[in-house]
Automatic annotation (TrEMBL):
The chain crosses the membrane at residues 7-34, 75-94, 103-124, 136-160, 181-202, 237-263. Gene3D superfamilies: MetI-like. Pfam families: BPD_transp_1. The lineage of its organism: Bacteria, Pseudomonadati, Pseudomonadota, Alphaproteobacteria, Rhodospirillales. This is ABC transporter permease. GO terms for cellular component: plasma membrane. One of its GO terms (biological process) is transmembrane transport. It is found in: Cell membrane. It comes from the Bacteria. InterPro entries: Bact_Polyamine_Transport (IPR051789), MetI-like (IPR000515), MetI-like_sf (IPR035906). Residues 69-263 form the ABC transmembrane type-1 domain. It is a multi-pass membrane protein. Belongs to the binding-protein-dependent transport system permease family. CysTW subfamily.
Length: 279
């Protein structure tokens, strides 16, 4: 193997710096969560223990950790389900041109370039104007969908652009109805991509702060509660909570990848190559 060029080392340094800034803060938080019982919020560590991982399950004087966690999980699941269903149906609809399709597309995508805090403030103000109480399951739910739906729609565009309509034509030639074609042909082929859309929907909602801040109402979600606790909590329990939420995110990613592998295994078992090139 010949000597590496100078550009290789420059690019490797840039990539290494990017990885450090991406994962360094996460490792610092997880490491500080193992502080001893007398440890503080900063280095150096004062002993090593699991004290703060257990302390998080005791009643806290500040913050509503488990209530906000419960709301974040429910909101994330609601957003995930709505994102998958609407993105899939929108992807099907956009396979054919219809009147106003371009305008509708730009309206949906526009929410990606609008400042998140402006979207949140607008939704919160609209609910107040209408005399409707803001809540995590109503106004915050809508605010999160303005963030997740454009991603889901773009993913489904990429999926259906590579979808071979010959599979649907074969199903119809064999007498399948429209619903049977969707249920037994289209859905199994695009299922791994729908799992990806679900993962996007849940994770984007679960850690969203800006679009939640003005639309959530009186009861915070977990990221909002963590932000509030940063200025009040003086123990590493907040780091333990960060470690738990990171572990939950990894579990969700792992479950999604497992679901994709199971779909592929089932298709190979039945000798199907219908999703070849789809994911």
């Amino acid at each position: 193997m010949g000597a590496r060029s100078r550009s290789f080392y420059i690019l490797a340094t840039i990539f290494g710096t990017f990885v450090f800034f991406l994962y360094g803060p996460m490792f610092a938080v997880i490491l500080l969560a193992f502080q001893g019982p007398d440890g503080g919020l900063t280095f150096p560590m004062n002993g090593i223990s699991l004290h703060w991982f257990a302390d998080i399950f005791r009643p806290q004087s500040i913050g509503d950790i488990w209530g906000s966690f419960d709301r974040s999980i429910k909101l994330g699941l609601m957003v995930m389900l709505a994102t998958v269903v609407i993105s899939f149906l929108s992807g099907l609809a956009y396979r054919k041109r219809f009147r106003g399709s371009s305008v509708l597309f730009y309206v949906v995508i526009a929410s990606l370039i609008m400042p998140s805090i402006v979207v949140s403030l607008g939704i919160g103000s609209m609910f107040e104007l209408l005399g409707i109480e803001r809540s995590w399951w109503s106004s915050a739910f809508g605010a999160h969908l303005t963030w997740t739906l454009p991603f889901g729609l773009l993913i489904m565009f990429a999926v259906f652009n590579r979808f071979d309509p010959a599979f649907e034509e074969a199903a119809r030639d064999l007498g399948a109805s429209g619903w049977q074609t969707i249920r037994h042909v289209v859905l199994p082929i695009v299922a791994p991509s729908l799992i990806g859309v679900a993962l996007f929907g849940f994770t984007l909602s679960y850690d969203e702060i800006a679009r939640t801040s003005q639309s959530v109402g009186a009861l915070n979600t977990l990221p909002m509660e963590l932000q509030a606790m940063q200025t009040n909590v003086t123990t590493p329990v907040i780091y333990a909570l960060g470690a738990y939420t990171t572990a939950l995110s990894l579990v969700v990613i792992g479950a999604s990848l497992t679901g994709v592998l199971i779909f592929r295994w089932r298709q190979k078992r039945h000798g199907s190559d219908a999703d070849k090139g789809m994911v």
